[in-house]
Amino acid sequence: AQSVAQPEDQVNVAEGNPLTVKCTYSVSGNPYLFWYVQYPNRGLQFLLKYITGDNLVKGSYGFEAEFNKSQTSFHLKKPSALVSDSALYFCAVRVDTGGFKTIFGAGTRLFVKA
Amino acid sequence: DGGITQSPKYLFRKEGQNVTLSCEQNLNHDAMYWYRQDPGQGLRLIYYSQIVNDFQKGDIAEGYSVSREKKESFPLTVTSAQKNPTAFYLCASNLGSQPQHFGDGTRLSIL
User: Fold this and answer.
1) Per-residue pLDDT at B1 exceeds 70
2) I want to staple B103 with a disulfide (CB 3.0 to 4.6 A). Which of A37, B4, B48, B80 is the partner?
3) DSSP A19-45
4) Do A32 and B4 make contact, defined as CB atoms within 8 angstroms?
5) Which residues of chain A neighbour B43 with C-beta distances below 8 Å?
6) How confident is the model at residue A53 (pLDDT cuts 50, 70, 90)?
7) Which residues from B are below 8 Å from A102, CB to CB?
8) What is the pLDDT of residue A99?
């Protein structure tokens, strides 16, 4: 079965420290991978994507993610966290089932403490 | 400004009542989606549509219905058959393999 796992419900970091939000996936074929962020009572906003090419992908607001094919991972990273980065983060994988369905992880809540 | 508009922002359903959630996009996207979000469960796909007058069931379609009469519009009806409708409902759209654009959601509660 195709799936996306975000093993941490919550990640706590201090402002200025680096942050990592983990994501692993299980799909057949080549995945399209995405990270989205959600603020309270809002829809999801796109952060970055990996389709092909360089394994290190840079996105919005200073975030980046590293695609690791052997570990089937796509962890989200940022060198220096801001309090305003506190939000709910979703990893997603798009699979070609004849309808290009997107599977979302359960989400990881990031708390950045001042 | 292009985007997706969901209305209403908050909706209350009485027992035995059908309610319809609106989703309109002016992004000229072909595909549209409805998701249900419950705490700790991520997003679950209810229905999706890749072209006008065609749509497919997602993972949790029971108790819901949709229509796609216009490219811009993809309304979701939560029927009385949906016994646990309290959730945050998100509409999204995209073009091809591009990332999905999301509306700001409708929060449905039971009276």
Assistant:
1) no
2) B4
3) EEE--EEE-SSPPEEEEEEE-TTS-EE
4) no
5) 44, 90, 104
6) confident
7) 33, 45, 100
8) 60
